[in-house]
Amino acid sequence: MAKLNSAVNQDSSAYAPTTDAVGSGGENNDLSEAIGRLEEENKSIVAALAKLEQESNILRELFNSANNELDNLKKPSLLVAEVVSVHDDKAVIKLPNGNKFYCYIAQQVKDLRSGDAALVDQKSLNIVEKFEAQDHFEVEKFVIVEKPRESWDSIGGLKEVIREVKEVIELPLKKPALFERVGIKPPKGILLHGPPGTGKTLLAKAVAKSTDTTFIEVVGSELVQKFIGEGAKLVKDIFALARRKAPSIVFIDEIDALAAKRIETGTSGEREVSRTFMQLLAEIDGFKHLDNVKIIAATNRLDILDNAIIRPGRLDRLIEVNLPDEEGRLEILKVHTVNMNFKKVKLKEITAQMQDFSGAEIQAVCTEAGYFAIRNEREYVTHEDFLKAVEKVRIGMYAEDEAEERLYG
Ligand code: ATP
After folding, report:
1. What pLDDT is recorded for position 299?
2. Is 156 near ligand 1, meaning CB less than 6 Å away?
3. How far, in whole angstroms, is CA 45 from its chain's centroid?
4. 67, 133, 196, 238: most buried by Cβ count inside 10 Å?
5. Residue 17: its pLDDT value, please?
6. What is the pLDDT of residue 63?
7. pLDDT at 3 over 60
């Protein structure tokens, strides 16, 4: 038994924790705590590293793009030229100043055609790239493109003019087959001429509305003044836009600014206007009589127009839009008073007072009469208001005439 006990004691002493073993347990805990801390630190270092790597990538990208930008800024700029004609690997180009050059086309430039825009090296003037400008977006910034709301009813008088415009513009657009059957070619466009404010623009808009066509409006003086060096290109783009938006009407107001007879002075401005005009003629010649693009031009100065624009096959239908007679004035007055609230107004009497007034001036009379009522805190317009308005507008007309006389002598 004693033997057995001592054996048990021996065994148990083998398993009993010694003071050493207790010490190493503490160290173990410390170690695992330290490992835990190190692992945490390691994790945060890995996270910081990832963040730094991300930042470094961003900085590298910034550096690269700044470098690229710097490289680009160092490159010489390229000239934009128009390709006049292509001859295998060479072409004739026209620079914006009108000078023409025969140059090489770089091998990588494919499908170059006359009329395209190309980028050329400033020194050698060789073509290095084809220029794909998104012209149709640009041209729409410079012209007014709309579906007008003015109807024939908004025009007073001008019966004969309306009949003619309907015949020449409306009928071919609505019934082209009729013209084919009869075998005649309707005019490509018309020229409305007459004093300012007589309803030329209004007529053009009304015919666009009645035919449900896109109305593209350009002002001749703007074409030559605002877009120096670009006038001819803009004319080309305007007609390309008209074809894309067909059926359409191109309305060119103040065409005299573009198509006036001129004495050749040889200045660059003069050459520019003449290039723009030539392009306009080329565009008019370039489409067919029954195409669904029509041109309506307007001018107050028929006397100074170059005959080339009114030659047969171009704007060969001249329609005069004159100041309204008494009956016309009454009708215009009716149009502009249709929504006015007035009492005891004798329109005929007012009409008689408005000799030589244009449609625009009659409209101004209505507006002024309304203002007299408002100033007198009334919600209706009286006969007196109209008479005062007529006087006011007449004084304005005299002042304008005098200013014009002083200006032109
Ligand atoms: P400009 O030669 O100065 O460009 P225009 O002949 O084109 O002038 P419009 O712009 O059509 O004249 O007319 C100006 C305004 O005058 C029109 O918006 C319209 O309100 C009025 N007006 C002119 N004529 C008439 C008319 N016959 N009937 C009704 N309103 C008219």
Report:
1. 95
2. yes
3. 57
4. 238
5. 47
6. 95
7. no
CATH of the domain at 162: 3.40.50.300
Per-residue confidence at 329, pLDDT binned at 50, 70, 90?
very high
Give Cα separations from 312 to 42, 169, 190, 288, 393 (angstroms).
90, 16, 11, 13, 41
Domain total of the chain: 4
Average pLDDT over residues 380-400: 90
Tell me, using a 6 A CB cutoff, whether residue 202 lines ligand 1: yes
pLDDT in tens, 259-305: 887 655 556 667 778 888 888 999 988 877 657 899 999 999 998 88
Question: In this model, does residue 251 exceed pLDDT 90?
Answer: yes
Instruction: Give the Å distance between the CA of 277 and the centre of ligand 1.
Output: 26
Tokens matching residue 391: 């006087």
**Residue range(s) defining the domain that contains residue 359:** 326-408
112 and 242 share one domain: no
Cβ count near 213 (within 10 Å): 23
Torsion sign, CA atoms 271, 277, 281, 283: positive
212 and 260, same structural domain?
A: yes
Predicted TM-score (pTM) of this structure: 0.69
Distance between CA atoms of residues 393 and 409, nearest Å:
23
Q: Please tell me the residue having the least CA distance from ligand 1 atom 1.
A: 196
Q: Is the CB of 337 under 6 A from ligand 1?
A: no
Residue 185 has pLDDT above 90, yes or no: no
- Whether 359 and 334 have beta carbons less than 8 Å apart is answered as no
- As a whole number of angstroms, the distance between CA 86 and CA 242 comes to 27
Distance, CA 360 to ligand 1 centroid (Å)? 5
Which of 152, 202, 209, 339 has most ligand 1 atoms within 8 Å of CB, for mutation? 202
